[in-house]
Write a structure and sequence with these properties.
74% of the residues lie in helices and 0% in strands. It is mostly helical and 177 residues long. The chain is globular and about 55 Å long.
């Protein structure tokens, strides 16, 4: 629904978009911080995915549209600030697949947020491998998929636990506030 340009947004809309901004900034900061954390894995492309904590928190606490904005800002801002167009393509493909899975799975009642994070991590790697196969013109990149899937299960579990803890803290604050 479109609103006339002269009409101000409501307080609730302002609060929502302020939360989106805070979560997008957090995703960006966490993504930057993880570049300083070396992982002892011989396969390139393995990362903790700390920025996805903010995306998954947005999916659970806000709505799909708001979480999509957090994810898109994370990809674009990180790409412009710390990367290049090719890195943005890898990140966008991975994020799109991961986000789609997490958006669907997070709506299933009783499904663990840790499982949702693991699925997102595995599909993030699949998206990046698909881009690598296209860019390099070879399917040989898929040979690293098993190692990346195992790493994604570990890193996804860690980020999922962080999300579960974060949601618990935020819910506690919401009840007190």
């Amino acid at each position: 629904m479109s609103r006339p340009a002269s009409q101000a947004i409501t307080v609730d809309e302002a609060r929502l978009w302020a939360r989106v901004g805070v979560l997008a900034a957090l995703a960006l900061v966490l993504g930057y911080v993880e570049t300083f954390i070396p992982l002892p894995v011989p396969v390139p492309g393995v990362k903790l995915g700390l920025g996805n904590i903010a995306v998954l928190v947005a999916l659970v606490m806000l709505d799909v549209r708001s979480a999509a904005a957090v994810a898109a800002i994370k990809v674009l801002a990180a790409g412009f600030l710390f990367g290049n167009p090719l890195m943005m393509a890898y990140s966008a493909a991975g994020t799109a697949l991961a986000f789609a899975a997490m958006a669907l799975l997070s709506r299933i009642p009783g499904l663990s947020v840790v499982f949702v994070a693991i699925a997102g991590a595995v599909l993030h790697n699949a998206g990046q491998l698909a881009v690598a196969a296209l860019v390099l013109g070879t399917n040989l990149v898929w040979a690293s998929a098993p190692v990346l899937a195992i790493a994604a299960c570990a890193t996804g579990a860690l980020t999922g636990v962080a999300v579960r803890y974060t949601l618990g803290v935020l819910e506690g604050e919401r009840r007190r506030g």
